[in-house]
Amino acid sequence: MSKSRYEPLVKLKKKSLDSAERALIGANNELASATDKLKFSYEELSRMTLPTQGSVGEFTQATAMIHAQHQTIEQCQNRVQNAKFNQHQMRERYKAAMIDFEKFKYLEIQEMKARLKHLKAQEAKMLDEIGTMTYKKEEE
Q1: What is the CA radius of gyration of the chain?
Q2: Cβ pair 97, 12 in contact under 8 A
């Protein structure tokens, strides 16, 4: 059977779908990484304590470290939010690519079915002609 006129489009849409899938996987990985980093930052903060005795310098240093950890947590939270937004965008891109791919795949299948139906009709017509010719030969 010859190629469908939709075959090049189906291949192009498949490449686009694969690209969108890779981007979605990357976004999922980025979100997982950002979430892990945020969790780790919270764990680090929970291990930090203020000294109960010692010099003011030690207290100031511990306070500065806790403040820095809070800033790290805030940065991680922003990274998680950005990763979630990016993941949502990639999911929508993947859905759109899937719909496009399925649309052209469906059109390709419908064209193949129509071509197969046409070929079957031609075959039936040819078989009828052969049967008619055979019948006429038998009559003679």
Answers
A1: 33
A2: no
Q: Are 124 and 36 in contact (CB under 8 A)?
A: no
**Separation between Cα atoms, residue 87 and residue 91, nearest integer Å:** 6
Spell out where 6-140 has E strands.
none
Model-level pTM? 0.75
Distance CA 104, CA 13 (A): 8
For 23, the 3-state DSSP assignment is: helix
For residue range 40-81, list pLDDT tens digits in order: 999 999 998 888 888 888 889 989 999 999 999 999 999 999
**Please, is 24 exposed, middle or buried when counting C-beta atoms within 10 Å of its C-beta (0-12, 13-18, 19+)?**
buried
Other CB atoms within a 10 A radius of the CB of residue 97 amount to 21
Domain-by-domain residue ranges, the chain? 7-110
